[in-house]
Amino acid sequence: xxxxxxxxxxxxxxxxxxxxxxxxxxxxxxxxxxxxxxxxxxxxxxxxxxxxxxxxxxxxxxxxxxxxxxxxxxxxxxxxxxxxxxxxx
Length: 89
Fold this sequence. Notes:
By secondary structure, the chain is mostly helical. It is built from three helices and no strands.
């Protein structure tokens, strides 16, 4: 579970880089990070239903999504802090 959480946090961070390069900041970046990570988590568990000896688990979806959302929140807070610092200076 911890490995999956780390993977989804890193995936969320990669989404942050991708959408930032395309001009999205603040809330929109947070939304993209969250939605894409949650969608991937749901799809990952869904396809596992069809793999022999595997099963989809809603607990995995929860923890994977939680780690991605925590990363999104961290990026949002750091981005807001940097923006605020630029305005002051």
